[in-house]
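FIELD: query
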Amino acid sequence: MLDRLEADLAAVERGLGESHPPTEAAVMAAQLGTWVPPRGLGPLPDHLIDRARALAATQARVAERVDALRITVGHHLTALRALPSTPPQAPRFVDVEG
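FIELD: result
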């Protein structure tokens, strides 16, 4: 289970670091809902505790980055909406014989 969570988180991090549109895999990873552990797993083995804590810390950092980006995008959208819309320009006639 930790492998899957780490892979999904890595895909989201890669998507956040890209300056171009994210890949389909990153979008899919970002659209993951709340993870629900399968039933009957029992307690986390001691040898995985440090790994799980590191994963939780990374998830918290990524969540902060996603929230900051969401706020930035909201500001950008607000600024774009404030720009006046311009009507389409009427065609101009060009003197091709002159």
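FIELD: remark
The mean pLDDT is 81.
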